[in-house]
Design goal:
Layout lengths: L5 H13 L17 H13 L1 E5 L3 H5 L21 H10 L11 H11 L3 E7 L31 H11 L3 E7 L28 H21 L5 E5 L27 H11 L4 E4 L26 E5 L15 H13 L3 E6 L9 H17 L7 E8 L2 E6 L3 E7 L10 E5 L6 E5 L4 E8 L2 E5 L5 H5 L3 E8 L1
Parallel strand pairs: 1-2, 1-7, 2-3, 3-4, 4-5, 6-7
Antiparallel strand pairs: 8-9, 9-10, 10-15, 11-14, 12-13, 12-15, 13-14
Helix pairs in contact: 5-6, 5-10, 7-8, 9-10
């Protein structure tokens, strides 16, 4: 029987992961790319503002929080199991049942495009090591002969998603887990696993660790050479890092006593040879291979002076779990606005179930986000942060020297938008204010420190029902 309810397992997971997000506000060690093509791509990426992260794998069939239940640490629970090894065997045997026959990459891509997202990052491999692409270096993959979907129309799921997304003009990125809990080069079957780290002494068996590095490089070469244009390599599993890179923000996470580097200089060399300008995001490993920071499940307290992206799940889990609770569209739109106002991007995490379909609520939220962005996107895309970033219920962005966007964040209980608003700005000269969504010019009055803008009485009720109201301020 289940020892504890599933929601507690989920709660423990979120709390555990949140212990590390503080590291993402550290900007003092950030290194700007030296490669001009990478820098050019990074600047473009900063203008995209909104991306989608898809978790899809064996865990989708089970409806559990990714592959973390394989990790034999106290915080990781295995519902209905009291025997770790039986669970681990059953988990890996899910590949014999995994058959997402309702997976439709074109439908997915159309939904992502309509949401207003500009880029999509897909989980090629999570920590369990199960490949959602056609890796030639393991049989533990969706295209393996023992997986029913290996004969499916879109058996190479990653390739199908990337191709469909590119057809819709979306930028693509590959999520890849550095740790791999199935390959014998990381978790050697000779020993039982003890935690998330290698279960053997890599200094005593250096040849085995060398094989793991080779295995990892071979898979990354496959991904960066056989899947078309990929703009982002998003590497997860920060505890697989050089010992010299461990700092106080991740030390509780990195307990293995020896160096777990995978030769990132070599990875960078062949990745950039295969994909010129590719962004490499070695998450939470400060240095030249972390092209942008990735705070998780939160927004930094202050605007950051370096490139960053908040990865935040739409529900309580990254992938699909039964009866998940999803954030409302208003909250998601305001989340995006708050992130963009501080100079970041939102990477919104979602996942399909084991059949390959998304919860209807996920599709509805994406549609509503897209409807708002279609009308108000000029205040989001290709904008830059501007002080005061956010003041009360008004968030700020700008384009160039002459255009400011003040975005009013409405409340659910609000019946009417305020008759007048104070907008902080340094713009001078003849000031013009408007509501772009309604093609309506507003009355404006210069005051100390900014301007006072007046909302038409006839629109105050309608405006209050919007997730957020964009006020465009320009000068001549």
């Amino acid at each position: 029987m289940m020892k504890r309810p599933f929601h507690l397992f989920l709660f423990l997971f979120i709390i555990f992961r949140s212990n590390l997000i503080v590291a993402q506000s550290q900007t003092d060690t950030y290194q700007w790319p030296k490669d001009p093509k990478v820098m050019e791509n990074l600047l473009r990426w900063q203008g995209y503002k909104f991306g989608i992260l898809i978790h899809f794998g064996l865990y989708s069939q089970l409806g559990i929080v990714e592959s973390w239940a394989l990790c034999p640490e106290d915080w990781c629970e295995r519902p209905v199991y009291d025997d770790y090894f039986r669970f681990a065997t059953d988990y890996r045997n899910v590949r014999f049942l995994f058959n997402p026959v309702k997976f439709d990459p074109v439908k997915w891509a159309l939904s992502f495009k309509a949401s207003g997202a500009k880029y999509v990052i897909f989980t090629m491999k999570h920590h369990d090591g199960f490949c959602m692409y056609d890796s030639k270096f393991t049989g533990f993959r969706i295209t393996g002969g023992d997986c029913p979907y290996s004969s499916g129309k879109y058996a190479d799921v990653a390739k199908a998603i990337f191709n469909a997304c590119r057809e819709e003009g979306l930028i693509t990125g590959a999520y890849f887990s550095k740790p791999d809990w199935t390959t014998p080069y990381f978790w050697w079957p000779y020993y039982p696993p003890r935690d998330r780290n290698p279960n053997y002494d890599i200094t005593r068996y250096p040849g085995r660790w060398k094989k793991f590095i080779e295995y990892t490089h071979n898979q990354l070469k496959e991904i960066t050479s056989g899947y078309g244009r990929i703009d982002i390599l998003w590497l997860d599993g920060c505890w697989v890092m050089p010992k010299s890179c461990i700092n106080k923000h991740v030390e509780d996470f990195c307990k293995y006593p020896y160096d777990l580097g995978i030769d990132m200089p070599a990875v960078s060399r062949f990745a950039l040879e295969n994909q010129p300008g590719m962004l490499i995001v070695d998450r939470w490993v400060q240095g030249e291979y972390e092209n942008y920071l990735t705070p998780e499940q939160k927004i930094p307290d202050h605007a950051l002076s370096v490139p960053w992206e908040s990865c935040i799940s739409m529900g309580n889990a990254w992938g699909w779990v039964p009866n998940d609770t999803y954030k409302q569209a208003r909250d998601l739109i305001q989340l995006l606005i708050k992130i963009v106002a501080k100079g970041g991007n939102l990477l919104l995490g979602i996942g399909p179930d084991g059949t390959g379909e998304f919860d209807p609520a996920v599709c509805q939220r994406l549609e509503e986000m897209g409807q708002w962005l279609k009308i108000n996107g000029e205040a989001i895309y290709e904008t830059h942060p501007v002080e005061p970033f956010q003041n009360g219920k008004i968030a700020y962005t700008e384009k160039g020297k002459n255009t400011l966007y003040a975005i009013y964040l409405t409340d659910q209980e609000e019946n009417r938008m305020p008759e007048e608003l104070f907008i902080q700005t340094t713009l001078t000269g003849k000031i013009i204010c408007s509501l772009p969504a309604f093609k309506k010019t507003l009355k404006v009055k210069p005051v100390s420190g900014g301007i006072r803008v007046y909302m038409p009485a006839s629109l105050q009720g309608l405006l209050a029902r919007q997730a957020a109201v964009v006020i465009k301020v320009t000068n001549r």
